[in-house]
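Proteins fold reproducibly. Take a tokenised chain:

. . .
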Amino acid sequence: MLELTVEQRKYLKAQAHALKPVVMIGSQGLSEAVLKETESALAAHELIKIRVLGDERDARVAYLAEICERLNAAPVLHIGKLLLIYRPAKKPKLRLP
């Protein structure tokens, strides 16, 4: 799992303000299809929002940890039902502080 500094997290949160969720985790939970979609979204955008439709906070925390672990990404933010995840591209678009 990728690690971020406090300054990097603050920068990424500011960049994510206008983003819309590009991946949804529904009643089926974190399926292989969701992971595949998340992988392609990270490859295309570096910084993505994921909306989780369930009400279980513990499940959302587990989803965030598993996604970051399996896709070598960094958790930026978990607020309510939104997850914010970052993984730099081979040619990064975002310049982290």
